[in-house]
Amino acid sequence: MSDLARQRTTAVLFRRSWAEIRRIADILRQETIGGALALLAATAALILANSPWRDAYEALRSFAIGPVALHLHLSLATWAADGLLAIFFFVAGLELKREFVAGDLRDLRQAMVPVAAAVGGVIVPAAIYLLVTRDVAGAARGWAIPTATDIAFALAVLAVIGRYLPAPLRTFLLTLAVVDDLLAVVIIAVFYTSKLSVAFLAAALVPLAIFAVLVQRRISSWWLLLPLAVATWALVHASGVHATVAGVLLAFAVPVAADEAHGDDADGPGLAEHLEHRFRPLSAGVAVPTFAFLAAGVPLGGLDGLVRAFTDPVVLGIAAGLVVGKPLGIMAATWLVARYTHAELDEGITWTDVTGLSVLAGIGFTVSLLIGGLAFGLDTARAGDVKIAVLGGSVAAVLLAAVILRLRNRVYRRMHHAGAADGEGDTRE
């Protein structure tokens, strides 16, 4: 390839600076812990829901608490979905804004690849779901369930099985998952808002605006910001828009770059990074595992129950969307960008690597369970089948991705050891 052609080519999966790789590595370590905790919580929920203590588990999920006058007398399961996941989306929003302002997504040529992949990973599984469930009355409301990627689980699995995989693959997955979270928020806000109260939504703008002014001035005192954040969340919840959207709105108000005029160290982290560092442990260690524990428990009904569930078109549609639709959509979008923008894979990375990564993105779990609850309710007859579909599809995606990526990891491990041996030989010379 000529020098001119190389200048015009945008790599689909591109190398990063060591600072960027270290940041991603730190996120991977944190998300690994969070993913492991969420997995343990989901496993515990499944065991309890299929044990002699299932009545106690359901009583815990349905236990209501909160002020009735403020319309916040909610079950613990609803508090987890509406309240704790707002923290998860706040952290995701901070990460997303950092990527758009100071990260890889600020360059349109680089951003178009993961953005296109994320869009493809939404359209195709939704289409597959609608195709499979076309004859089921009311099933269309669940079209968005298989469109989500659980960033914590996906990164955790990748960290465990892909130690030697190239850094660009991890970067691509992280960026894809972040954009996927943004699309999930938009879908929730637009398609799963049943009754919109413009008055409450307008009222939410007041504490949000005050919050924005304070953070723009680099004021990070919790006793000022926390009440404003809670007020914004409560008013968004009252408006009919899912309360997790408030987390993203608050995150987008936080400045990314350091500002010397407000006392920041020019070379130090901005407020967005500071708050992300502070709240990520709460999100990964408390919010997501608690939601997983209260949302994942479903009576399986033994082998007969599983067989019955997987003959339901809704269950099949969700599972097929996650296992088939997600990787197909991501691969197709990535190929189209590579085909029509003169982009190419980074040197040493193959389409087999991208395939494994695309299959891994089929882990829906947290956000898929959330959307499933919004689509069909938390305690309906359909809710149990949705949980089975999400859990089954996510497990299948993990197993398939593990096979592909483990094989590729062995290849890269041999290359790593060969390179290390060559380096030692050169040193001895």
From TrEMBL:
It is a multi-pass membrane protein. It is found in: Cell inner membrane; Cell membrane. Coiled coil: none annotated. One of its GO terms (molecular function) is sodium:proton antiporter activity. It catalyses: Na(+)(in) + 2 H(+)(out) = Na(+)(out) + 2 H(+)(in). Keywords: Antiport, Cell membrane, Ion transport, Membrane, Sodium, Sodium transport, Transmembrane, Transmembrane helix, Transport. One of its GO terms (cellular component) is plasma membrane. Gene3D superfamilies: Na+/H+ antiporter like domain. Belongs to the NhaA Na(+)/H(+) (TC 2.A.33) antiporter family. This is Na(+)/H(+) antiporter NhaA. The gene is nhaA.
